Give the backbone structure.
Amino acid sequence: MSKLKASAIAPSNIAFSKYWGKIDDELTLPLNDSISMTLDTIFTHTTVEFGPQYAKNEVWLSDSKTKATLAKDQKQARVLQQLKRLRRLAGVKDFAKVVSHNNFPTGAGIASSASGFSALTAACLAALNIQVDKKQQSILTRLAGSGSATRSVYGGFVKWHQGKNSESSYAEQLYDQDHWDLANIILVTESAAKKHSSLIGHARSKSSPFMVARLKAVLQHNQDLETALKSKDFQLLGQVIEQEMFSLHAVTMTSQPPILYWNGTTVEILHEVRKLRDQGLESYATLDAGPNVHLITESSNIKKLQKHFSDFVGVKQIFVCKVGKGVKITKQHLF
């Protein structure tokens, strides 16, 4: 086995307060802090090997719906940039082979870039024997170009600090995975990759007339989320989560040109969640940049919600996640 080979498994996460828009594209510096919950059952498994046997970099990607294919264009470019950055840091010139698998649909608004770039960075650091602490790892992960990936370094409930420069923009764990027994039920309404990537959405965000108001509101939302997490106030948590979700999508829908990530089933689910709350079955909905709905609930409600939506028209698949641990190195290699 090559000494320059390692594998990592990184979890996806769901943002309670959303990262949307950047101060600096190259450094992936966000316009605001964001808070998330790390998930336990959906993840990316990545193996990286550096060596003279590779005449060029190879990047193979697959997910729960697709077989492994060579990455091209923008997907490949960000991976290659991270490989170059970390090779330079380690003083290694060899090219690498990367094989990465998501156990859930890629590019559908379920934070596949978060788990993907967190796993890639962790595997590269291990393969290249680069020793860093968690804070520095989160910074290096952020530089890969997926800001949400910096939060997947940690388990539990995580805050990504906006920062004013590269060293001050990092993630930290607020509470570990045992702090609060919450669940995220993901209702998949579309598993195909979305038409407009998050990168496009970030670029258009400042063109929305509501962006200034959103950035003001998210400051209070983050304070309220930290209060809710500390006191385990589920109603407050849920109310803020939904406000954040609507705030984000108000911006995407009014950017120039507009981006509508929702589909008809998305809207039907949002109505149904409110109806169920009125009937005493409490969950709160959020969406990242995609049509798939995340229901945040307490674990005691999982079975009832799962049963209710199992035959809901337009729901193609359901993932049930609880609070998970952060990225980890594994001895299980993909090649």
In short: The first strand starts at residue 5 and ends at 15. The first helix runs from residue 73 to 90.
